[in-house]
Amino acid sequence: EILAINPRGQVATFKHGGNIVNESIGICFYLEHEFKNQDDGKSYATVVQRVIEAENLMKQPRQVLAPILQGRVDKIDPEEMSSRKKGFSDELMLWNGYLAGRKYVAGDNFSMADIAVIPLFAIFFRLGLNVTKYSNLNTYLDTMMKRDSVKNTAPPHWKTTEPQNIIGDI
């Protein structure tokens, strides 16, 4: 069935009326356009910017998490790992700043930007990220984890298991 609408045979694939959109970010843009939640061009620009920046939110942490999860931290020079952790922390601090005085990552309205980033923040939290030094991010996570849409799409085992302590203080 997926191959009929997505020649790559991959998910995410989205069909709305006669429109078919493949790839998660493309779907986010389509939905934000079709079901506008923003009042003006500047707000929309912020949503687009944050959705695109979600790629950076994956890149920096991946540099730290990949060796940890693959059990090869000992193969990374300690100074290199320290530098990677600083990059991860700097990225989190940037997002913490975006959330200053805002309820959501692109402003006061829930948007596709939140849909793009909450899975990443939720994973960091589940891997034991200590968010106390990122107070705005901590508040955001608390707000988002209470949303029905987030609770209903979280992996089922998250309801029955505790977060792991893999990341800790970054």
Structural commentary:
- There is one protein chain.
- The protein is mainly alpha-helical and 170 residues long.
- The chain has 7 helices and 2 strands; from the N terminus they run αββαααααα.
- A two-stranded antiparallel ribbon has the order 1-2.
- 24% of the residues are buried.
- Average pLDDT taken over every residue: 87
Residue fraction in strands:
under 5%
- How many DSSP H or I helices? 7
Q: Report the strand count.
A: 2
Question: Helix content range of the residues, please?
Answer: 55-70%
| Contiguous uncertain segments of 5+ residues | none
Indicate the structural class: mainly alpha
Computed Rg: 17 Å
The CA-CA distance between the termini, in Å, is 43 Å
What is the spatial order of strands in the main beta sheet? 1-2
Could you give a short account of the major beta sheet? 2 strands, antiparallel
**N-to-C SSE series?**
HEEHHHHHH
Shape: globular
